[in-house]
Each structure stands twice: as structure tokens, then as C-alpha cells.
Amino acid sequence: MNKILFFDIDGTLISDRTYKIPLSAIDAISKAKKNGHLCFLCTGRSYGMTKEVSTAGIDNAIITNGMGIILNKQPIILHTIDKLIVSKTLQLIEEMNGGYQIIDWQYGYQNAYNYANSKKAFLDRFPDIDPLYFFNQKGMKSLAEYPESDILKIDVTLNSEEDAKRFNQELDPSLEMTWAGGYTNHTANAGELVSKGYNKGTGIKELINYLHMDIKDTIAFGDSSNDKEMLKTVNTAVVMGNGSDDIKQYADFITDDIDNDGLAKAMESLNLI
């Protein structure tokens, strides 16, 4: 029976140490597709922000934590945030002198605060590489490039936990925050903002219904706390050996470290390849 496979990106496909996808993972995904299994990215990113994992050969994706679904490189389902709510939320962040990235189905657009933080993070980690390379690979642009498109997700970075508490109190009730997210600020005052009730798990359910498939044929691969709903939703949950301890409790199968061919080993053990 063919399965539908869901892959997180950071820490699952891309190594946090080498910033590369292990060749064994690329080969395993290719073999799984040849065996008739459907492969989807399942990510908080927009579709254009998955460019850096294009070598994995996965064209389909659940994006922005369940707010959108891309099939054959085109959006089939998009849940956008009301423009007035977006405007009100960004105004609140700016009042706190915070950072944000607004994400449509294609790219992420950063205000000056987040753009500078991202640039510094790239330089700190890879001092010999032009930061523009990473911005391009990650589909991250400046706010000046924003084309007024519909927004699916907002990444937020605030300056303190006190600001985060105020933000929670004043946040529009239609929105929900997952703290300790973001690409470069894994802290208690940074996170990801989507419409209430949406997450990677709801995106999987919506896709399964669209494809008229059975949830029993789903397998997900993840490594961190924002994969929780994805792992709880699928029939078989695989957590990478390098995954966080808090997420391993949701695993049906814990595989090896990403840099020790963990993804390929798991797919072989599950008879996908």
C-alpha cells in the first residue's frame, strides 16, 4: 500500500551542523517516490522559502504551519489572515520596537529589525559567505519588496519576555502564537503566528481529505516542538535522533541522528525503500 510521507525541514532534512541535506536522505526520498509513495514537505515556511531543500526532490508541501497546501508547485488551499488584522498586529509589534516577517504563499518579507538579525545570524555562522546567498536560498526578502499579497503567517521577534506577555494580552483573538520559533531567534520572546486552530496537523488532515486518502497511510518525520501536531496526527510518527527530548514522547519510532543517515535508516526500517 502506497503511503503519504511528511518531512519537516530544519533538523530533519537539513542538518543544523552542516547546513546540508545528507545524500542518503536525498537518495531515500528518490527511492520512496519511485516506489509510489507521495512525499510532502510539512513546514512553517512559505513555498518559495523551501528552495534550499529543492535537491530533496519534493515539489509538494504543507506550508506556513497548515495555512496552505501546495500540490504540483501550485496552491490548492490557502487560509489567509485578514488584512486589517495583519495591519493591527504589525502596528503592535512596531510599538514594541520588535521584529517581524510576514509570509505569503511564496516568500517571507522582513522589517528592518528582523532583516538585520537574520543577516547577523548568517554572518556569525558562515562568515565567509555573502548573507544575500542565504536570503535568496531561504526566500527571505526585505519589507520594501512586499507586493501587498495575502498573508498566511507572521513570524514575530520581541525584545523581552515582558513584551511577549503584553503581546499575548493584546493579540487579536483570531490569531494564535507558538513561541520559541523563527529562523534565527529561538527564544521565549520569538515565535510564529497563524490563525487560531491551524497547525501542521490540521494541514495534514485537510490534505488527506482533498486526496481522498486514509490517515492510516500517513508517516511523518520531525525533530522539534513545532512538529508536535504533525506527529500526533499521522499514523506513524518518526523523530530524528537529534530531536528535542520533549518531542520524542510523541514518536512511534526514534531513528538515528540526521548526520548519521537517520532519515534513510528510518525509511528503510519502515519498508518505504
Task: Describe what is shown at a glance.
The protein is an alpha/beta fold and 273 residues long. 32% of the residues lie in helices and 22% in strands. It contains nine helices and 14 strands.
Structural class: alpha/beta
C-alpha geometry: globular
Kindly state the percentage of residues in helix.
Answer: 25-40%
Biggest sheet overview: 8 strands, mixed
CATH topology of the largest domain: Rossmann fold
- Strand neighbour order, sheet with most strands: 5-4-3-2-1-12-13-14
Report on the architecture of this protein.
The protein has 273 residues and is α/β, with parallel strands linked by helices. It has 2 domains: 4-79 and 199-270, Rossmann fold (3-Layer(aba) Sandwich); 83-195, Hypothetical Protein, Haloacid Dehalogenase-like Hydrolase, Chain: A, domain 2, CATH 3.30.1240.10. It contains 9 helices and 14 strands. Strands 5-4-3-2-1-12-13-14 form an 8-stranded mixed sheet. Helix 1 (23-34) packs parallel to helix 9 (262-269) and helix 3 packs across helix 4 (131-137). It is globular, with a radius of gyration of 18 Å. The two termini are 13 Å apart. The model has no long low-confidence stretch (mean pLDDT 92). Keywords: Hydrolase. This is Cof-like hydrolase. It comes from Eggerthia catenaformis OT 569 = DSM 20559. It holds the Pfam family Hydrolase_3. One of its GO terms (cellular component) is cytosol.
